[in-house]
Amino acid sequence: MTSRGPLLTVLLAGAFGLCVGPFYWLAMAATQDDKDVFSWPPKLLPGGHLLDNLQGLQESIGLTRVLLNTVVVAGVQTVGAVVVSVLAGYAFAKFDFRGRNLFFVLLLSTLVIPDTVMLIPIFQMMMELGLIDTYQSVILPGLVTPFGIFLMRQALRSMPDELLDAARVDGAGELRVLWRIVIPVNRPIIAALALFVFLGAWNQFVWPLIALRSPEMYTLPVATATLQGLSTTNYAHVLLASALAAIPVMALFLVLQRQFISGLLAGATKE
Amino acid sequence: MSLAPPGRVPERAPDSRPASGPGSGDPAGPAAAAAPRKTPGRGDPGASTDPGSHAAHGRPATPARRRLLTRGSFPYLLIMPAVLGFAVFKAYPIAASFWISLTTGSGDEQRFAGLANYERLLTDPLFWTALKNTGLILVVQVPLMLGLALLVALGLNSTKVWLRPLWRLGVFVPSLTGLVAAGVMFSVILNRDAGLLNWVLSLFGIDPVNWLGSPFWARVAVVLVITWHYTGYNAVMYLAGLQGIPKELYEAAMVDGAGPVRRFFAITLPQLRPILLLTVVLSTIGTLQLFDEPYVLTGGGPDNSTLTVTMYLYDNGFTYFDFGYASALAYALALIVSVLGIIQVRLMGERR
């Protein structure tokens, strides 16, 4: 029995290596000259071409603009989706109102309908509204996330009613209860939700690929994919773009990993 | 209870809420609470200003003007953004997509064509190829990934393992990567002549594999990449489930002389069933909609061996602008996803 510890540790370290190893290689490859990306054996130490590659990306995809687009789209979509989810989740968790169950079931049932079903009508709608190739076209469809509303409802249900009532008794209006009690008390789970939404918004690909037309509007994943489609792909550049896409999310995750994992667990274990 | 100033709300009792409290999903219960809800008690403090679920007899009356946002209308304000977004970006597109699937033509010249698109679909060899590819990936990848995830979770749950937080962090990291970033990264790692993977294999004396160039290995590559991407995510979900299993169950089983294998099948698996079901359904939905990885890794090739239904849908809709046919494909896919989802819930959920 006692000998199982070291063995398990080695196995898990192996799994860790399989998961993290490719990222290490990616980080190293992003600093190589294009030729050296495909050298044999692979270069597993930093090369000296990081700045060259950044400059190359700036020239080929307009890196600063593309990053700005991605930050704007992911940022606004995250704030919007979190607000919508917190409000609706709170209503579903703590209020009785006519139509509550019906709407909640309708909302959840869209989880099993593939997003691809909605692509074409939303595309046509955006065309008619003249929104294709704008930030709005990418952001708007992502504002209602059934998963986010579900997660918030699960989390807010466990909040004691006495807490809310105490504030009401003290004369606080409903908005004040929401702003001063509900949101502060649930800040960790709201942070977790924000991370989830940001993760999805930062990495989303299919819809921006369809909704965006001009290269100066592209987000990082779309720009990266177009780079790779070129016949004379500079792989050091593409890999650097991929690394750049991964870095902010990982940094956020490292800072907020406790919230992130507890959020994942809240969605997974309750009910 | 203890949070409310006791002197001011003497009669409040925690269980004065109806059993049908929010989210219990019981439509009959709230009917009782529903009656006062329609008259939200504006200027009628005697009728209680918070309808329904709360007994507030001891509450001092509040001036009506401070109750502009009553509990009657407030929830509707809360859900308004969600309802609007749902109507515009979920309900309408789902309905419209069905209508479009009954038309042919492109752009402004859509005309009604009945079930022509669905008939075309049944005899379209590429659709069946795409469906076969998707099904093949599903059947191989989902069990492989979830099995691995369960093993990783069991390992991470063992108190004998050193440095557990580090391993947990590491296995979760791939699921943070975007599909494009992962796809691009692996398209180079899987390169036949100079990729990292073939180099590692060469250290063990294994000949280079043509990962992305042969139909068989291209499918294997897609499976490997998706497995790499999502195993850790599922492992962390399972870990959550494992940590929620009461220790007493294991202690009792050990007293009864059950060995580790017996304990796993008699306690761990049944206790994990809700989460297993969740991951099976989510993975199935995700795999059936597979698009990004093959799009970036192989573009559907070689020889359409990794063409998926969603890729084919995308090609028809946004390369050929055949919206009618693409919508029919979308609905066919939705049907398959729903049917499989229902079967899975039935199979795994019934013996509760």
Give an account of the 3D structure.
- Chain A: One of its GO terms (biological process) is transmembrane transport.
- The complex is a heterodimer of chains A (271) and B (352).
- Chain A is mainly alpha-helical and 271 residues long.
- Chain A has a single domain, classed as MetI-like (MetI-like fold, Orthogonal Bundle).
- Chain A contains 14 helices and no strands.
- The mean pLDDT of chain A is 86.
- By secondary structure, chain B is an all-alpha fold.
- In chain B, strands 1-2 form a two-stranded antiparallel ribbon.
- In chain B, strand 1 and strand 2 form a beta hairpin.
- The longest helix of chain B has 33 residues.
- The interface between A and B is large, with 107 and 125 residues.
Write the layout of secondary structure elements.
The complex is a heterodimer of chains A (271) and B (352).
Chain A: H1 4-29, H2 34-37, H3 50-61, H4 63-94, H5 100-109, H6 116-128, H7 135-139, H8 146-157, H9 161-169, H10 174-185, H11 187-203, H12 206-211, H13 220-229, H14 235-269
Chain B: H1 29-37, H2 74-100, E1 103-104, E2 111-112, H3 116-122, H4 125-157, H5 164-172, H6 179-189, H7 196-203, H8 215-243, H9 247-255, H10 260-288, H11 292-297, H12 309-318, H13 323-349
Antiparallel strand pairs in B: 1-2
Helix pairs in contact in B: 3-13, 4-8, 4-10, 4-12, 5-8, 8-10, 10-13, 12-13
GO cellular component, one term (chain A): plasma membrane
Protein name (chain A): ABC transporter permease
Membrane topology (chain A): Multi-pass membrane protein
The number of helices of chain B is 13
Q: Termini of chain B, distance in Å?
A: 34 Å
| Structural Rg of chain B | 28 Å
* Radius of gyration of chain A using CA atoms only: 23 Å
| CATH architectural grouping of chain A | Orthogonal Bundle
Mean pLDDT score of chain B, rounded? 78
Strand content of chain A: under 5%
Output the CATH homologous superfamily of chain A.
MetI-like
Q: Mean pLDDT across all residues of chain A, rounded?
A: 86
